[in-house]
Automatic annotation (TrEMBL):
Domain of life: Bacteria
Biased composition (Polar residues): 242-251
The protein's name: DUF3313 domain-containing protein
Stretches for region Disordered: 230-251
Pfam families in alphabetical order: DUF3313
Amino acid sequence: MTSYNQLSPPKGKFTKSRTFVDARGLAGVRTVSIIPTTFSFDATSRIKSPQDRALVSNALDRAVCVSLSDRYQIVPTGQPADLTVRTVVTDIVATNKTMAGVSTAVSLGSSLALPVGIPRLPVGLGGLAVEAEAVDISGTQRAAVVWSKGANSITNNARVSEVGDAYSLAANFGKYLSRMLVSGKEPKGFDLSLPSGQRMNSALGGKPKYAACDLFGRSPGLAGIVADKVGAPPEWTDKQPKTPTQQASKF
């Protein structure tokens, strides 16, 4: 991040954040470029698998790209844009795969025998810490956020993967960052607005509004919802971006 000087004091208990938003500086933005999320040395050392790290970064960037598409034109990475968004995963707490499997088995088993399933066991939960900023074409910082959140046993389903929790939290952060950029202010509470048609289409795994978003793969759609409920690893259903070789094979 180019500067931490304008960030607010830390806020929140379960989701901790420090934010800065220049609403006037964002007012004239029409085009946005998204640089693929990177990992700090510490975060990389905690999650050794490049494939697992890609799941997290793509989930985050995809959420940002699709959400910002409601208001801005998303241009390919590297092309000139009014605003450039860049994000770094600074830390990850890996999900305990064994405990996630046990928790899923208990929850699914109880749902068959009881009117209400038993919530996820509150052990072995993962977490995610991220920092992001948006700079204008001159390099001036127009928005920034430092954010961290741990999974909980009520709203986060257990998935048998080291990045099971980080995967869902990454998408949460992506939507949080997008709300901040679109509204020009710090997001508060839940977003109760109805999703647009293009966001619904993308959520179901459809083609994004702007081709630049395909760099981050596509949502797993209904298959992902089912996989989340039964604790399947996210890589089973996540639609990762096509490689240049795969893209060339279409022509």
